[in-house]
Design goal:
- The chain is of the alpha+beta class and 305 residues long.
- It has four domains: 53 residues, no CATH class; 96 residues, no CATH class; 57 residues; 48 residues, no CATH class.
- The protein is 49% helix and 17% strand.
- The chain contains ten helices and seven strands.
- Strand 2 and strand 3 form a beta hairpin.
- The radius of gyration is 40 Å and the shape is elongated.
- The N terminus is likely disordered.
- It comes from Rhizophagus irregularis.
- It holds the Pfam family FAR1.
- InterPro entries: FAR1_DNA_bnd_dom.
């Protein structure tokens, strides 16, 4: 039965006074049913979208995990790429690595790295260096546990790619929680961050708080250790001071070097305060002194400040 027939049937069965009310109520009931069905469809569509997003996130996580996996045969373009991958892997697992051995060959006058062995920072055995006098001994613990984890990288002459030929992925110690904050190697600032610190210091921004806020905006999600940041700022200031040209000191060095070669040079200096700041300087070369004997009635005095 169609929608119009239902309406007509209900209208005929009622009294004339209730025709209009029943008709409006019937329309409202049908419209509410339609809205409920549309809401159910929207809810179902949202659930499907959420499932799709969850699947996408899981697939991305699985791809990231696959990228961090370590196995024999992995190839890289450069040694820096290989070491960067191992640093990322060790950061994820909770330990740090170091180079154990590097083999270099000179070919056509060029030094080429052919093999590198990386080992865990806990590799090796601790050998105490104690003296006879117990008062001069220091009972210090060591992190060396003779860990056997190591990776061999090789660059054969027949290939331009670096590959891992040996992977011993076994540890005899516990992994370190939150290695980015506890292991010194992973706390180290990257080169791109240090370049920005040098740039900020060069252009007059030397406050650690301001520089850290700028770095957090430039490198979101990167770990910036406060102590390493202070050290990097001080190093940038030191390098900046070395690069600056000190006109007064350079001039004094030049004048005294000239006087060391010819004692006829006349140099008079004036320093002020406990810091011995140069506040006055006058000099006369031998040629100027000779000209003074001939043209003593003419004085040309140049002052600079």
């Amino acid at each position: 039965m169609s929608y119009n027939n239902k309406c007509n049937k209900r209208i005929r069965s009622g009294s004339p006074d209730n025709y209009e009310e029943e008709y409006i109520a019937l329309i409202l009931d049908d419209s509410s049913n339609i809205c409920e069905k549309e809401n159910e469809k929207n809810i179902e569509a949202e659930q499907i979208n959420k499932r799709i997003l969850v699947n996408i996130d899981n697939s991305e996580d699985s791809e990231e995990e696959m990228e961090i996996k370590l196995h024999v045969g992995q190839s890289f373009q450069t040694w820096l790429d290989a070491e960067k991958f191992l640093n990322q892997y060790s950061l994820k697992e909770g330990f740090s690595i170091r180079r154990k051995r590097t083999e270099k060959l000179v070919e056509n006058g060029i030094e080429i790295i052919r093999k590198i062995t990386w080992e865990c920072c806990c590799a090796g055995k601790y050998q105490a260096k104690k003296v006879i006098n117990p008062e001069n001994q220091r009972n210090k613990k060591s992190k060396c546990t003779d860990c056997q984890w190591h990776v061999n990288g090789n660059l054969p002459k027949s290939s331009s790619n670096i590959s891992f030929t040996t992977v011993i992925n076994e540890h005899n110690h516990q992994m370190i929680p939150s290695p980015s904050a506890t292991i010194a190697k992973h706390r180290k600032l990257d080169e791109d961050i240090i370049e920005f610190i040098n740039f900020y210091v060069l252009h007059g921004t030397t406050g650690a708080r301001n520089i850290k806020n700028l770095l957090n905006g430039q490198f979101p999600g990167r770990n910036i250790n406060q102590k390493n940041l202070y050290n990097a700022i001080q190093m940038a200031k030191k390098n900046l001071a070395i690069c600056q040209n000190y006109d007064a000191s350079d001039m004094l060095q030049y004048l005294y070097s000239q006087k060391a070669e010819d004692s006829r040079w006349f140099i008079e200096t004036k320093f002020d305060g406990p810091e011995r700041r140069l506040c006055g300087l006058i000099w006369m070369s031998p040629d100027q002194q000779h000209a003074w004997t001939r043209y003593h009635d003419v004085i040309f005095f140049d002052t600079t400040s």
